Amino acid sequence: MFSIAIQQQQYKTYILSDETTGSQLEVVPERGGIITRWRVKGEEILYLDAERFTHPDLSVRGGVPILFPICGNLPDNSYTLNGQQYTLKQHGFARDLPWEVVEQTTKDTAALTLVLRSNEQTKAVYPFDFQLVFTYVLQGNTLEIRQEYQNLSSTQLPFSAGFHPYFLTGDKNQLEFDIPSQEYQDQQTKEVHPFNGNFDFNRDEMDFAFGHITSQSASVIDRNRQFKLTLDADDIFSMLVFWTLKGKEFYCLEPWSAPRNSLNTGEKLTVLEPGTSYKASVRLSASFF
Prior knowledge:
The protein is 4% helix and 48% strand.
């Protein structure tokens, strides 16, 4: 049996439940359309800095922030288009703006559909008409994020897109990674290193880009919490980024469609023709053992 409830906390929160399996998902549309909690068999899968979340002027550190129309940051937070310079902050604006709930369903799954439309605020930094339609689908131990990117402009729409999920963990040394790549680039030093499945968690910050993935599926086994997390993403998501901070109980494994600065370089940038759209999906599954 599936249900969707609404709670008025600091923000209106939609709670999707699969009561048969004890899974729950919490979504806050007005705070960037973000997923803030995901529980499987009563266990928290996601990390959330609850104190930081209460401050609207701070970016959310936790849950599953949405990245659009860029992933990562731009040099000096700027890009040039048709000879004009624009300012766009790290990861874009979708994670900061309110989204609108347009559909709910509890038939066969618990699903919530949200929409973000371009407006004067977005066009000041990204001069395009667009519509994003995202549907969060909860069923059993799986969370699916279905996306549709629509170009409503009379010109081509260039963008990159992704997600920045924060996964809760206790002892990072008990994590085992299966990332489909043999190398990564350290985003701080720009050096490329071979990858054999292990990380050194003694560093203060780890920001690694896996740009040459050989599969659209990655997984992490948490021996301490005794569960396996699997991330499956459609082909548009051409890379994975791993990020964590020393002393914090989270790690991020982020599907990105293009690397940092792609709006300037064009590397792996998605370009939609006027009046067209693109559909994609990201699926997360958590299984306990």
